[in-house]
Amino acid sequence: MAPKNKNPNGENVVPEVQQKKTQALILKSSDGEEFSISKSAAGLSVAIKNMMEDDCAGGVIPLPLVDGGTLARVITYLNKHAEDGASDEDKRKFDEEFLSGMEVDVLCDVALAGNYLDIRGLFHDVCQRIVNGMKNKSVEWVRKTFRIESDFTAEEEEQIKKEYAWAWEGVDSDAD
Amino acid sequence: MKSYEKLERVELRLAEKLKQLLVTCNLCFDGSDVAILSSCAFVLYELRVTDTQMPVLKQREPPELPCNLIVEVDRISNLPGHIIDKILSHLSLRDAVRTSILSTKWRYKWVTLPYLVFDNQSVLVSAPDQTLVKNKLVSIVDHVLLLHTGPIHKFKLSHRDLQGVSDIDRWILFLSRGSVKEFILEIWKGHRYRLPSSIYSCQKLIHLELFNCLLKPPSNFNGFRSLKSLDLQHITMDQLAFEHMISSCPLLERLTLMNFDGFTLLNIHAPNLLFFDVGGVFEDVSFRDTFHLAVVSIGLYVNTGNERNLAFGSTGNLIKFFACLPHIQRLEVQSFFLKYLAAGTIPGKLPKPCVDLSFLSIRINFNDIEENLAALCLLRSCPNLQELEMLARTEDQAPSRAATNIAENFQSFPFNQLRIIKIVGVSGIRQELYFINFLLANTPILERMTVKPGSMDGGWELVKELLRFRRASMHAEIIYLDP
To answer: Where does the record place a coiled coil (chain A) (predicted)?
Structure first.
């Protein structure tokens, strides 16, 4: 079992932009990892953009709520979306692949980071991705996918179904 | 052991996690002793490894131990409420409500959803007859509103089985006490639903969308002070109420009006208006203080005829219409609106050109001489046009009186930005060819002209003419589409 906070491409991820001589700044994760990112890519995060405008911390922006593994993922996303030649179609494909491999825990981390850093497109897509695991799925399936442990008795479940009978209307009980 | 080596790298992170855990578990923690922390992390890490290797051991562990938390069973249930709200808002209401059965933590997660949408997808109702369906729907909305807690930012009611029933009054009254920002009500069938006066006190509204409603604001209605976007379709309202509503929404940026009755004069006084989309039967349109208006789409759904036009003053509708639109960027003249514009004096061009206009679409009756002249006036007033669409409107009327000599009106005029032209529904009559010839000859950077005739008749003749015309642009391609 690999530690959850590993960067997706192994340790010491160095974003490509670092090699370029473009204006860069440093993002520092909650666990002290530092990542270089171009200003144009970082600016896609409204929160970072605001911090850049306030010119805090002289080029190093601390992000105490995002761990290194998640930050590396977010930076991959930002770099793709700031890429000059990338068409909308490219980005769409990237987004799909980017999220499709993620486990529920990682999706939660990325959702939190996307919300905190105010990266609307990313946050929207992650929420959508999470929700896709719930839509038209049986209760059992959803519990299994998200590792939610039920603490209801069968009786209580029946009671809830009865109370919101309209929400269960037309739901195939075996859907998964 | 290999995991020890791994540990060196992950130790710090685990320690960090542990710190969080201790805090979440409300355990007292000093935070200074890194060594203890590291050891704890080490133990926990080891436990995690053995956890997967020895399921027997797992059973002996009491479930409350942090080691279970560290493998982070069920992250999603513990996400902050506002994130859950946002995730759930991607689900239809019925899907969101069904999450209440997942576990006790989820029992009431949906009740804080700030967006409530009752439409055909989010609420499925089946019942043998209409009255039962309606009753069910009403009780669902009541039920949801009763359980809901926290602010409701958006409320949308658009269900094909719901008529304008008085229960809606109650819901609107309820919403008016909160801070609803977005209100959408679409009554699919039956009579216009008369909105209760409580709607006019929703002062936090930013977006209001109504379909098949009757609006009678109380005399003390002072406008929607925060409203930015108003969409009224199939509505009834009297002239004064309409004018007052538009002019007393100081932030209004977007206005959509489709199929309305009760008022016939579109007097638009809206200093922040950017977008105006209108289609319906009206006698006159006039703008006041609409200097920011950038996108206009306007369709007059009735042919005003030639007689009425004479009633208008000598200024002419063209000059009047554009006087308050100095920054217009996109304009669509639909249905019979060109006929309206052609009433009164038609100048060769407007006193002030529309320098920002880059897209123009005109629905035109090429047989109507006034409409041709009005279209020409418009074209000559748009020096920076990039894209042009001319859509022929056929009418059962004889070619108008002097269809003979408008050729002389097509003096050259440079369209130095025009790249794309689309001409649709043409039949090959002379006036159409004048326009096509005029456009091809005056567009030095034209990239593409698409011509689509209205019928097969005379198509070959049209193609022959198209081939003959001189083109100012070397790169222009002409695409002839089958009707």
So the answer is: none
Q: Say yes or no: B106 contacts chain A, CB-CB below 8 A.
A: yes
Q: Indicate the residue type of A149.
A: E
pTM of the model: 0.80
Task: Please check whether residue B264 lies inside any domain of the structure.
Answer: no
Give B96's pLDDT tier (boundaries 50, 70, 90).
very high
Separation CA B399–CA B390 (nearest Å): 19
Calculate the alpha carbon distances from A170 to A142, A175, B123, B151 in Å.
18, 11, 10, 30
Q: How many structural domains are present in chain B?
A: 2
SS3 at position A146? helix
Where in chain A are all domains bearing CATH 3.30.710.10?
A: 16-132
Output the six-digit token pair for B318: 């063209």
User: Is B162 a domain residue?
Assistant: no
Q: A31 and B13: CB-CB below 8 Å?
A: yes
Q: Under DSSP, is residue A72 helix (H, G, I), strand (E, B) or coil?
A: helix
Regarding an ipTM greater than 0.85, the answer is: no
At B408-467, the pLDDT tens digits run 788 889 999 999 999 999 988 889 999 999 999 999 999 999 999 988 887 788 888 889
For the stretch B310-329, pLDDT in tens is 444 568 899 999 999 999 99
Burial of A161 (0-12, 13-18, 19+ CB in 10 A): middle
Q: Report if residue B100 sits inside a domain.
A: no
Which residue from A minimizes the CA distance to B79?
A108
Mutate to test the interface with A, among B85, B89, B90, B108 (most CBs of A within 10 A): B90
Residue of A nearest to B93 (CA): A167
Whether B69 contacts A115, CB under 8 Å? no
A52 vs A60: CA distance, rounded Å: 9
Chain A positions touching B107 (Cβ under 8 A) are 160
Backbone angles phi, psi at B449, to 5 degrees: -120, 125
Domain A16-132 classification at class level:
alpha beta
Measured between alpha carbons, how far is A105 from B71 in angstroms, rounded to an integer? Answer: 10
Domain that holds residue B15: 2-70
C-alpha B99/C-alpha B253 separation (Å) is 38
Q: Which of B6, B87, B104 best tests the A interface by mutation, with the highest count of A CBs <10 A?
A: B87
CB of B121 closer than 8 Å to CB of B92? yes
CA dihedral (A71, A74, A78, A81) in degrees, to 10, reads 170
- Chain B residue with the nearest C-alpha to that of A64: B16
Rounded Cα gap, residues B276 and B255, in angstroms: 5
Task: Give the C-alpha separation, B68 to B48, whole Å.
Answer: 8
Q: Which of B53, B70, B87 is the last residue of a domain?
A: B70
Name the residue among A127, A151, A167 with its Cβ closest to that of B98.
A167
* Residue in B closest to A107 by C-alpha: B76
Q: Look at residue B304 and tell me if it is in a domain.
A: yes
- The reply to whether residue A115 touches residue B86, judged by beta carbons under 8 angstroms, is yes
Closest partner CB to B102 (pick from A11, A105, A142): A142
Contact B451, B477 (CB under 8 A): no
What ranges make up the beta strands (E) of B46-194?
115-119, 154-158, 182-186, 193-194
Q: How many CB pairs under 8 A join A and B?
A: 114
Q: Which of B70, B89, B115 is the last residue of a domain?
A: B70
